Amino acid sequence: QAGVMGIKGLMGFLNDHAPRGVKETKMEAMTGRTLAIDASMSIYQFLAAVRQGADHSNLSNSAGEVTSHIQGFLNRTIRMLECGIKPIYVFDGKPPALKQETLAARAHKKSEAEGELHAALEGGDDDEIRKAATRTIRATPEMNA
Fold first, then answer.
1. Can you tell me where the transmembrane regions are (predicted)?
2. For residue 91, what are the domain limits?
3. Which of 66, 69, 74, 145 is deepest in the core (most CB within 10 A)?
């Protein structure tokens, strides 16, 4: 399934074996707690969500470096602190060798999406531009530093 990240089959397993183990809750219900947050997943969320202009490009600084993730982290952190939540962002280490095949497949899909984005930009289809731009998201090592 496109766009799915994380441990394959985990949600199905949890739904089957611990159906009450996962629930959605409002942020305000977490007041007074410390929460560990997957920083890498957050980076991808922010790169997908924080976009601008007709080409749905990421925010960037004067040197052309993408900054959408920084804006996203800032907004989310402020919101959590306002709700009395202490966020702790956890960054992934080096991926295990077992994951290399998955990473190669993702890189191939991103490469295909870049071609689709180019075609969508030429065609001027705003919806297709947005979809293709989202599929080309790449988090750099600097973003995870």
1. none
2. 27-135
3. 69
pLDDT digit string, tens, across residues 77-99: 999 999 999 999 998 777 777 77
Q: Domain with 50 in it: what CATH number?
A: 3.40.50.1010
Q: Give the count of domains, the chain.
A: 1
Q: Which residue has the tokens 């790449």?
A: 138
Torsion sign (Cα): 39, 42, 47, 51: negative
Q: Does the reported pTM lie above 0.70? A: no
For residue 4, being part of any structural domain is answered with no
Q: Which amino acid is at 83?
A: C
Lowest-pLDDT choice from 16-20, 29-33, 48-52, 97-101: 48-52
Who's near 120: CB < 8 A, 6+ residues apart?
128, 129, 131, 132
Residue 47: count other Cβ atoms within 10 Å of its Cβ: 22
